[in-house]
Amino acid sequence: MNRRHIALGALALPWLPAVCRAQGAAGGPDLSRYPVGPLPPDFLGSWRTGQGPPGDWRVVEDRTASHGKAIAQISADPTDYRFPLAVYQPLAAQDVEASVRFKAVEGRVDRAGGIAVRLRGPDDYYVARANALEDNVNLYRVMGGRRQQIAGAQAKVSSAEWHTLTLRAEGDRFSVSFDGRQLITATDRTFAGSGKVALWTKADSVTRFDRLEIRSLR
C-alpha cells in the first residue's frame, strides 16, 4: 500500500478495520462527505479531560480550509483545566503518525490546538499541542486526568492562520513536528498499547481543524 493519506477534504476510500495493522496503512475522515452542522458520526465529541462542560464540536464553513469546511471546537467556556476531545472512531493504532492542520481562532485563557494518540479514555493518552498565546509546542502525557509535560520547544504560533502539527509515536519514541519542522524528540513508556486518535483543545480555545491524516507505522 502506498503512503498517500485519506484526509479531511481528500478522496474518500473505504474505512480501515478498527485496528490498523498493515505498515503504512492510512486512514482519516473525508470531510467533504459531511454537511455543515453537527459533528460527523465518525467522531465522538463528548469526551473531555478535566473540569467543565464537554466541547461543542461542529463542521463549519471555512473558505480557507482544503475543501471549504473544517471541524471546529466553538465552545468558549473559560474553565482553565478543561481539554475537549473529538475522538476519531473508525481506527486505533499503537505505532502511528497523526498529522492535522489547525487554526487557533480565539481564546483568552488559552488559544491552542492539538493532536492526541494512544487514547485509552478521556483521561489517558499522549498529546502534542501548539499554543498561540505562549508561542510554544509541547508534548504531554495525560495519566489519570493529570497532564504532565514530557518536552517542549519555542515556536511562533500565529493566530487565525493554518499550521500543521504532527505527532509520531513508535514504541517508546516520540517526535513532534510543527509546520514541517521537527521540534521535539523524546522517550516515554507510560502507554504502550494501541488507542484512538483525537483532536484536542484547551479551556476557551476556539480552534478549527482540517486534513487529519493517520498512518500506521507497523
UniProtKB/TrEMBL annotation:
InterPro entries: GH59_C. Residues 1-22 form the signal peptide. It comes from the Bacteria. Keywords: Signal. This is Glycosyl hydrolase family 59 C-terminal lectin domain-containing protein. Residues 134-215 form the Glycosyl hydrolase family 59 C-terminal lectin domain. Pfam families: Glyco_hydro_59_C.
